[in-house]
Design a protein that fits this description.
Elements lengths: L9 H12 L3 H4 L1 H8 L3 H25 L6 H8 L2 H33 L5 H18 L1 H31 L10 H4 L5 H11 L5 H4 L10 H30 L11 H46 L5 H4 L10 H11 L7 H5 L2 H21 L7 H23 L3 H21 L17
Subcellular location: Membrane
InterPro entries: AA-permease/SLC12A_dom, APC_superfamily
Protein name: Amino acid/polyamine/organocation transporter (APC superfamily)
């Protein structure tokens, strides 16, 4: 059986997850969240961070119990049943397959706004081609590139926050510490949750790293720690950045909400900083796309290797590079849909798949706990029942807070998955093909 090489440490896995999150995306989506929450962007990130933290705890529990690749697919299958595990994997597949496309489309849109003479389609194709080549060559190269690009991204993010602070200090009427950025035009819980449902798009890196189990040293210890660190670090970055940007620009009126950070960057730093900001944002999108495509290809490799998805195309590794080339190519082909879609359409149902998978993983922890009658201490009840229950309720709340189009498209994907599962199992009369994650095979 094909196997991946263990080459990733805790630091590399955390870096991979943070890169997947793309911390600078907090600036790229600021205007959209400001409009949804009516000027309470930091509050949306607090709500999203809390919800994701409880879910991250459930992922960490499952990663420790089942140190295998496959993410939610494996956790739900082993804790509940095969068919529901397939649905979890199908939900994650929606998220992972379309996320690289959305990332590259956002980057292409910003580049097109800066260089309108260059067709946006050309930028999309460039993102797809360069990222795919790097991922085919292997994670070692991707890991090195991620380190450099993450440094650039953090420098731009730090500069943006510093200029926001400088801008606020220059206005005597604006205090540096205020609750206004969390309240906005008036505290409205439903609007904050609607904003949090979109903000969770930025947190997807914490579960993505669970697909790297077979390439990580001591995965049973490393992956759970990485999941929690990524969620905490990402949440802190998002809340702090959103706070100072909201403080510098409390209004929810923008020339374009899709490019609000571009407008804010000009206000706080002038034309020179706008160019610097644009470079950082594009670097962030490229880094995130690199990680997103790598994770998606490894999930499809895990599912294809054992016949859940077509084995000939997705379940083999390149003899030369040791990477799942077929799965990487599929990701690239799906991303070509960006040539015909806009950012809103392409991202509208990504979070639906994520929230469904998150809910099932939280449920998996609860089911696993109920099947262990000997574990009934107060600490066990807290860790394996109450925390995942909170995570389950939070992710379901976020799911119903999505817009109607997202829910409709997500349900359509779910129906397709159910039909495919029915065909795969002969009308649910037999189990789906079982994945075998034996790193030494």
């Amino acid at each position: 059986m094909a196997r991946l090489q263990r080459s990733l440490s805790l630091g590399a896995v955390v870096l991979f997850g943070i890169a997947y999150m793309t911390p600078i995306i907090v600036l790229g989506t600021f205007g959209i969240l400001a409009e949804i929450s009516r000027g309470a962007v930091p509050a949306t990130y607090v709500a999203a961070s809390l919800a994701m933290l409880f879910t991250a705890l459930s992922y960490a529990r499952m990663a420790a119990l089942f140190p295998v690749a496959g993410s939610a697919y494996s956790y739900v299958r082993r804790s509940i049943n095969d068919h529901l595990g397939f649905i979890a994997g199908w939900s994650v597949l929606l998220d992972y397959l379309f996320l690289p496309m959305a990332i590259w489309l956002i980057g292409a849109a910003y580049l097109h706004s800066a260089f309108p003479e260059v067709p946006q389609a050309l930028w999309v194709l460039t993102f797809i081609l360069v990222t795919s080549v790097i991922n085919v060559i292997g994670l070692r190269l991707a890991k090195g590139i991620n380190g450099v690009l993450m440094l650039v991204q953090f420098l731009v993010l730090l500069a943006f926050v510093a200029l926001c602070v400088h801008y606020v200090l220059g206005d005597a009427s604006k205090p540096l510490w205020s609750l206004e950025p969390f309240i906005g035009e008036g505290m409205n819980l439903s609007l904050i949750m609607a904003g949090a449902a979109v903000a969770c798009y930025s947190f997807l890196g914490f579960d993505a790293v669970s697909t790297l189990t077979e390439e990580t040293h001591e995965p049973q210890r490393t992956i759970p720690r990485a999941i929690l660190l990524i969620t905490l670090i990402g949440g802190l970055i998002f809340v702090v950045t959103a706070y100072f940007v909201q403080l510098a620009h409390p209004s929810t009126v923008f020339e374009s909400s899709d490019a609000a950070a571009y407008e804010i960057a000009r206000n706080i730093g002038g034309d020179v900083f706008v160019s610097f900001f644009l470079i950082g944002l594009i670097v962030g999108q490229f880094t995130s796309g690199l990680s997103a495509q790598a994770s998606a290809s490894r999930l499809m490799f895990a599912m294809g290797r054992d016949g859940v998805l077509p084995r000939a195309l997705l379940g083999t590794l390149s003899p030369r590079f040791g990477t799942p080339v077929g799965a990487i190519v599929v990701c690239a082909v799906v991303a070509l849909l960006a040539l015909k879609l806009d950012v809103t359409t392409s991202t509208s149902f990504i979070n639906f798949g994520a929230f469904l998978a998150f809910s099932l993983v939280n449920l998996a922890v609860i089911v696993h706990f109920t099947r262990q009658p000997q574990a009934r201490g107060a600490l066990q009840v807290l860790r394996y029942l109450l925390c995942p229950l909170i995570g389950l309720l939070a992710t379901l709340w976020l799911m119903v807070s999505l817009d109607r189009l997202a829910i409709m498209l997500g349900c359509a994907w779910l129906v397709i998955g159910g039909l495919y599962l029915a065909w795969l199992t002969g009308g649910f009369r037999r189990r789906p093909p079982e994945l075998h994650f034996d790193p030494d095979a």
